[in-house]
Amino acid sequence: MATTMEDQLLSLLRDTQSPSEGPRKQAEQHLLQARTNPAFPTSLATIATHASVTPDIRQSALLILRSFVERNWSGQDEEGPTIQVGDQAKEQLRTSILGLATGGEEENSKVRTAAR
C-alpha cells in the first residue's frame, strides 16, 4: 500500500479499535470526513485485499465500505443526493470484492465472509 489515502485510512481503522474513547471517537469522526474523498471506497478495498493487514482491520475496512456502497452506489437514496461513486471506481470495487469473496488466494475466512 503506497498511497497516502490508504495509509491514513489504515491508521484511522486501527484507531477505531482503540479501547481509549478519545482516539476512537476522533478516528470515527475523521473516517466520516474522509468519505467525501473520491479515493475513499477504492482505498478501503485496497486495504481489505492486503494480506499484510490484520484480519480485524481488513474486516473493518469491508464493513465501512459496505455501508458506504449501500448509501452511495446509485448517487441517490431516500434522503436525497449522496456521494457519487465513479464508473472506474465501481469497476475496481467489483473486481476487488469478487476476488476477496471467492478467495483467489488463501484468504482469512472472516475476511472472505465480510466480502460476501
**Share of helix among residues?**
55-70%
Mean pLDDT comes to 83
Largest sheet: spatial strand order: 1-2
Global outline = globular
What structural class results from the helix and strand content? mainly alpha
As a whole number of angstroms, the C-alpha radius of gyration is: 14 Å
Tell me the span between the first and last alpha carbons: 23 Å
Tell me the number of strands.
Answer: 2
Determine the number of helices (DSSP H or I, runs of at least 4 residues): 6
Strand proportion, as a percent range, falls in under 5%
Unreliable residue runs? none
Please write the string of helix (H) and strand (E) elements. Answer: HHHHEEHH
Number of domains: 1
> What oligomeric arrangement do these chains adopt?
single chain
Sheet of most strands:
2 strands, antiparallel
Structural notes for this entry:
Strands 1-2 form a two-stranded antiparallel sheet. It starts with a helix and ends with a helix. The chain is globular and about 35 Å long. Helix 3 (40-49) packs antiparallel against helix 4 (55-72). It is 67% helix and 3% strand. It has 116 residues and is mainly α. It has one domain (4-103). The longest helix has 18 residues, at 55-72. The chain is built from six helices and two strands; from the N terminus they run ααααββαα.
